Amino acid sequence: MGAEESRSGSHGLMGASAVACNMKRQVQHARPWSLLHQCSIDHWRSGHAGAAGFSETTMTCSGLMNKECSATFCISRQGIINVNKSGPMFSFRRKSKFTKMAEHFEYNHIPAHLSSIQNFHVKSVLCYRGDIVVLHLVRSLMTQFGVIDLGINKFMGIFGKKSVEFVNEALRGEISPDCTMCLIRMPSLTAGSLYHFYLFSLQTRELMAEIEPPYNHALFTFDPRFCGSQLAVTSFVRGEDNSLSLVRLPTWDVVTTNTRVDDLHSSLSLHLKELRYSRDGHMIFVVMATSGCHCKEKKARRFQPIDVSIYILSGDNAQTLHCIQYHRYTCALHSCPVNYMPVLSVCGSRMAILLNDLETSIDHVQVYKLPTAGDLQNRCRICILQSFPPDIIPKLPLPTRLISYLQFKPECI
């Protein structure tokens, strides 16, 4: 099922109020995976996003992958700090956003005896969840990781010290839903193996578990329904390089495996770009894109755009549910993943993608209805989140546990 199939469903000339009314009307009758709305990127930014139930308006980013942005962090989307500082530290020469942000961390969050005396430098933001930030730090050609809690403005410590300096491209990390653990894929220093998964405690900064996956390009993501006890991992089973497995932590036990994720290729090594869960954890999005560099195509718009395929799998049994395919004028190798990744609505029941028609270079946003999974409780959560703005949810006269459920926090919180 291609995303380009419903170009006639454009509502780009609607005002925000008309979009909201149209969405409410269509949601009642539309089937899952139906196209609910289409507009230009400019209309999306100017009000259509909020009217359609989305808090995210940033669908494009000029940041460079592994230099300014990472798989789980976008310099344009996640405002960890205000990078437009006016103090003398930031104004003596022209700097990129990331350079300003890195200097802010080094001067204001990392203790002076580390940043000044021991010469620690911020090389990248490895991952980010809530107020917790994990930084890739380098010192004397050695890689280490630092944890910062922006909620209390405190540097929590350093972990994962390695005797070599890794390039950002070699690292991938994600913080668990309860912000107590961090899983990092990085090169192994042991002869005969290339990459390992390392599970660290962010509270003690100690290594909890590690494993060598059979394939170096394996990706992972935490199930948001659990504090950190279950993962979705691609190519985790030896001999199955086109698979996705649900894995238990810290034992690494495989719960179930889908041995055929991509219908077009036998291996995920060249085309797999990202792996994400839906907000409620009932679906997994496997994002595939045309391999190779397409920077010239992005600038000139004279060549074919990249092909993007989103395979949607069940978060409960890993079985394939649906596939959406579309085209984007971007480079999936060097550009920020925001340029081709889907975004989810506040209620989690809608998905938006940015795409290009082959006949024109205009960027369009399309909104699709996702199937409603789970029990009555989850359906009620969707209705409540569609009725109240996100900032009102914590103020509702409801028990703390129910407020946490409405905010998609793990079960035991």
UniProtKB/TrEMBL annotation:
It comes from the Eukaryota. InterPro entries: SOCS_box, SOCS_box-like_dom_sf. Residues 376-407 form the SOCS box domain. One of its GO terms (biological process) is intracellular signal transduction. This is SOCS box domain-containing protein. It comes from Pomacea canaliculata.
